[in-house]
Amino acid sequence: MRWPAAEESTPDLALEPFSAEPNFKTRIYAALKHAIAGMDIYGTSEDTWLDERQLAERLGVSRTPIREAIAMLEQQGFVKSIPRRGIIVLRKTKREVIEMIQVWAALEGMAARLISLNASRKDIDRLRKIFDKFHDGHAPADYLSEYSEANLQFHQTLIQMTGSHILQEMTEDILLHVRGIRKMTIGRHDRADQSIKDHLSIIDALERRDTELAEKLCRDHTLGLADYVEKHSEGIFD
After folding, report:
1. pLDDT at position 47
2. Which of 42, 46, 110, 136 fits a disulfide with 1 by CB distance 3.0 to 4.6 angstroms?
3. Are 233 and 94 in contact (CB under 8 A)?
4. Which backbone phi and psi does 81 adopt, to 5 degrees?
5. Which band of pLDDT confidence, cut at 50, 70 and 90, is reported for residue 7?
6. pTM of the full predicted structure?
């Protein structure tokens, strides 16, 4: 798969041109990393390639800062430059993804602890509002695409609500790979219905300020994904 693709087929990955600034290279790096994070790199068996010339045209910049940003992404293990072929977006192995999810579980457990101790009731209400639209007549399993986005929003909001920039930075790189796995597995084996039950239990514990329970429920919920990938990864890493 060659990327960037036509804008009409991937409107959510639009990259807007911007003018040069002192942190020019960093901004391009951040834009490319954000766009890659939004790609479904595990939803296809085809390799995903980046085209340096197209990236430069889409961002309205020269190829030099694109190369510098790509070098930064390569150093962090997101992409790999292959001579005479291009730049490929790297996918993790099954074992690597499981280990990333386990780390995510530990970080989310800490996020739940910090939220329980420090967040206002108004802030915690933000989490409940994410699932307001889902009920017996609008079940997650019947609206998988919609619920998948709500699911991802919940997990991202948990980290953001801590106010910890370190936690956000640590989970950002994991999200690149875990996001795609979550989206692919949410519709399997009634996972969507169980997922919203888990989320609401976590929110209940946060509202009651039951710190130990909120941390445990949050950690166990994400570890459940690691266990699922271990046992049911067909079609993802094959």
Report:
1. 83
2. 46
3. yes
4. -85, 125
5. very low
6. 0.77
pLDDT per residue as tens digits for the range 123-136: 999 999 999 999 98
Chain CA centroid to CA 176, Å: 5
Whether residue 13 contacts residue 1, with contact meaning beta carbons closer than 8 Å, is answered with no
* DSSP 8-state code for residue 233: -
Strands 86-89 and 2-3: unpaired
Q: Among the residues of the chain, which ranges form H helices?
A: 24-37, 52-59, 63-75, 94-118, 121-129, 144-161, 165-185, 191-207, 211-231
Encode pLDDT of 56-71 as tens digits: 898 888 888 899 999 9
What the block records as the tokens of 99 is 């280990």
Phi, psi of 234 (to 5 degrees): -65, 140
Distance of alpha carbon 219 from alpha carbon 104, whole angstroms: 8
Facing residues of 79 across strands?
89
Backbone CA torsion sign across 87, 89, 92, 93? negative
- Residue-wise pLDDT for 189-231, tens only, equals 788 999 999 999 999 999 999 999 999 999 999 999 999 989 8
Average pLDDT score over residue span 68-89: 89
Q: DSSP characters for 19-42?
A: ---TTHHHHHHHHHHHHHHTS-TT
Q: How far does the chain reach from its first CA to its final CA, in angstroms?
A: 17
Q: Sign of the CA dihedral 216, 219, 221, 224?
A: negative
* Residue range 12-22, pLDDT digits in tens: 555 666 555 54
Q: 6 in the Ramachandran plot: left (φ > 0), alpha (ψ -120 to 50) or beta?
A: beta
